[in-house]
Amino acid sequence: MKINLDRLENDFNYINSISSTSIGCTRLSYSKEDKKVREYIIKELEMLNAQISIDSVGNIRAKFNPNKSDSKYLMIGSHIDTVYQGGKFDGLTGTLCSLEVLRVFNESKEKLNIPLEFVIFAEEEGSNFGVTMLGSKYMTNKLTLNDLKNLFTKDKVSAYDYIQQMGFEFHPEIDNFIDKEESLAMIELHVEQGGILDKKKMSVGIVESIVGMNTLEVAVKGVSNHAGTTPMDYRKDSLLASAEMIRSMPSLVEDLANAVITVGKIDVKPNSSNVIAEETIFSVDIRDVKQDNIERISDHVNELCERIAKEKNVEVKIKLIGSSKSVKMDQDLIGIIEEEVLLNDINYIRINSGAVHDNAMLNDIIPTAMIFIPSIDGISHSPYEHTKMEDVLIGAEILLNTVNRINRRN
Ligand SMILES: [Zn+2]
Fold it and tell me: Lower CB density within 10 Å: C or N end of the chain?
């Protein structure tokens, strides 16, 4: 069995031609760009006679079972949404390679003893409501439709209303949730989004652990006042206090080998050049492979912000708005992928994922594994994100042959 590279390349070109935006790719879940890509992929799945279902939050699942097997489904797939002005490979690579795996099995004489299930997780990037992996959290009962009432777009529309306004019907009674009686395992191919594989000239990374993360929201409240008439020592400046908090955050992780902390989003009110900022809200993203460290750093962020708020005479409220636990990939699946990589003489390493993926949500229910391919210069979530087509091909072949290895074992 062989991946058809021309067909795969055509998919990339076609999808990027219908959904790229002026700078990179802005394909947010539920947007018109997202809908066009969904339509295309669904049409392709229909040609394979896959049994397609779309749940309330927009996760697409397609069961491919040409031999009417009653074995558990092996899941493959990824996501198609991007960050604002993101790249053309994050998510889409695993999605299109998985679609291609289905097509190859469809054409091949290789008998499928285990049926396959293709999946596209909705809203992986969290670009709409600030909460990542919304689709896989819903699919694993870690988030309910009711929870969507407390998540908002930047225009203050709740996720509950927004998703329905964008044309998705809520029908939780018929939604399909991840169930270990029905699903065998999940394998996701993804671009690394870091520079390790590219720097080490490796074609494949077999993921051992996915980092855990906490996302905090820090709201600093001061008093809005005239920038000209308010003496410096009378001010309650929320932005100045926030700047000091943010400036001090890197010191909280400097002694930890794998921990990282990021403030990537800030909102200032009233955001006016001649007014002292009344309220500043910013995010704090904390990640590590060690769960204890994540909790400890989160506590330290709390202490740090409270101390600075006191010194600066402002109020601070901190809440946890998102979290995912650090998880280990399945050793048996890692072994199968490794055998396949060794057999084909491919340069590879075992690697940890610094980005959280949908697989981390499924991991406590079914075995999961991830195959990484290089991102050039480690650039991702950027218009400059790039992966060579020859590496995409290697990844797709490894995915295909891994699926077949599991197929033959069953
Ligand atoms: Zn991704």
Answer: C
In the chain, the domains with their CATH numbers are 5-211+326-409 (3.40.630.10), 212-324 (3.30.70.360)
Q: Tell me which residues have their CB within 5 A of the ion that is ligand 1.
A: 90-91
Q: What is the pLDDT of residues 257-269, one digit of tens each?
A: 889 999 999 999 9
Q: Ligand 1 centroid to 321 CA: how many Å? A: 20
Looking up tokens 């077999």 gives: 206
Cα 39 to Cα 203: distance, rounded to the nearest angstrom:
32
353 CA from centroid of ligand 1 (Å)? 11
In angstroms, the CA 26 to CA 82 distance is 6
Q: Which helix (H) or strand (E) holds 110?
A: none
Axis-axis angle for helices 92-107, 5-19 (nearest 10): 140
Nearest-angstrom CA–CA distance, 246 and 259: 16
Distance 292 CA to ligand 1 centre (A): 25
Q: How far is the CA of 28 from the centre of ligand 1 (A)?
A: 12
pLDDT (tens digit, 9 = 90+) per residue, 74-129? 999 999 999 999 999 999 999 999 999 999 999 998 899 999 999 999 999 999 99
Cα 240 to ligand 1 centre (Å): 34
* Residues contacting residue 387 through CB under 8 Å, at least 6 positions apart: 89, 93, 191, 373, 374, 375, 376
Q: Is the pLDDT at 28 greater than 90, yes or no?
A: yes
Mean pLDDT, rounded, of the chain: 96
